[in-house]
Amino acid sequence: MKEEKETAAVEFKQVEKYYQNKEQKVLNGVSGSVPKGSILTLVGPSGSGKSTLLSLCNLLITPDAGQVWINGKEVRSWDVNQLRKYVGLAFQSGTMLPGTVEDNIVHAARLHHFEIDRVEKFMERVHLPTSLLKQNAQELSGGQKQRVALARTLVNPSAILLLDEITSALDISAAREIEQLISDIHERDQKTILWVTHDLDQAKRMGEWTWLLAEGQVVEAADTHSFFHHPKEELTYRFLRGELSGGQRS
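The chain above was modelled as a monomer; its predicted structure follows.
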């Protein structure tokens, strides 16, 4: 008997997205699938549509053409609250909401009307001392804020985690700590992770698969080793040589 193909965690089918009253085409026929439990790193020049692609995955925005499928279900057919429980999103800035660290962590539970049995466990998961729970979140360091933002995302029982340049504002030491934290989360929970990064060394370290986006299209999609060591497209060679903007190394 023929085995059924496993449903992809995320699948894009000829996705297009416009801004500025449809005068600016940000995504132009993007297609590709992300296997369940994998880490995909998304690289490319600034303005190539990487963050837009993430935003489509939990209905922060909707596609103007094409489809986005999450666990075998088109994104617009999801209940938005259920979708955002299933697909977590963490941004570059690690923005803190007003109040204490604890207020920030329990925010998602209050928003979606469910109880957290033990707030401390989320601090432990992101390797922060529980003594910080009563501290004003605005007083934390950049690295601590990013960890709290991740803890806040992890409160929802998400299967997919979207990371948008989450270490770009951190120093090298703090960035490596966040990388290790994401590795631990991935190993323990087998979450599917889509990670936008401008840091090619980070993409090489963290990705199992890597896509290059340029001018709103997927130029190359390959396992990460092949992407960096045996790219097939001339534009990929140029990007890796630093000839296109957005290919910085840290």
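The two ends are 50 Å apart (CA to CA).
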